[in-house]
Amino acid sequence: MQTFSVTPELIKSKILSNYFGYLKLFTSHQSNFLSDLYRRYNCLDRANLVLFFAKKTHQAIMRKKEYDLNYNLSFETFWDNQNEADVDSSTIIDVAKTTSLPKETTRRKIAELIKEKIFFKAKKNIIWKPNDEYKKSYNETVNREIRELAKLTKYVADKIGFDISTDEIDREYKKRFSFYWFHYLNLQLKWMKLWKVQMQDLEIIMIYMQIASYLSSRVEEVVSHEEVFSKPDIINRPMEKNLNVSLSATSLSEITNIPRATCIRKLNLMANRKIVTQDENSKRYFINPDSLSKKLVSKELVEKLQGLYSEFYFIVIKALSSRNNS
Length: 326
Known about the structure:
Layout: H1 8-17, H2 19-41, H3 44-63, H4 78-84, H5 92-99, H6 103-115, E1 119-122, E2 125-128, H7 132-159, H8 166-175, H9 177-199, H10 202-216, H11 225-230, H12 237-240, H13 249-256, H14 260-272, E3 276-278, E4 285-287, H15 290-293, H16 299-325
Helix pairs in contact: 1-16, 2-7, 2-10, 3-9, 5-6, 7-8, 8-9, 9-16, 13-14
């Protein structure tokens, strides 16, 4: 039997001390998550609203456990559970506050999602109730997200000395899907809100995450969070070794599903704000170290963001450890 003690603070410290190693997996997972959302909803603000109501659905499903300890929370039974879930109503003000969207924008985008039959309005209550074609696409996407999240969780588990395989984590996520996905969506809503407040544009964050993913995949050395912000030029090292860490607008458009013209417009905004730099010859974009020194992507913000993920890993690893010891 494996005895194990862990805290969110321990997890956070391990992530920050192995920052670039963690980013290799994290930026790939997060950029894929955002790109999948954009592909399904053509707008991350609309996607944010879906996450809000999906989280409430999982919360309602978990309440079934209060009356039936054997209630099945699995990925396999999710849509059947969703049909039975009694989801609490939410006001426009509640939704706008959680997603950091203006009230009128929230109202308008909810109306769009109702028209597209992703949301359903029963009296004054909004319910996330998509059609069968959507459900099939959703299952395929979430199945992939679970696998990527399992790999990310495995990396963190290894760093804190918790012995568990990726397959075990994957199975656990699917077995008690609504429990873990409620916490995961709650994390994503908070993560997106922090970036929304900082950048005012979630598509900019998606593009930034993709460039960061490309960069971190080419950094072989161990780099801590402290080193990244005390010596921001460290992100230029791959270029000094003639490693390509830049991406074109066309590539970013293909990866993120953002139309090329929109991608170029947002990249120009990012360049004006010194978040990225465009190479004069290749016309490709790379992360500007000044984005760190000018506090656009501040050390404090990154610590806050990783603190959110650390809380999630703590919940997962605590649950996994408890089940292993039972």
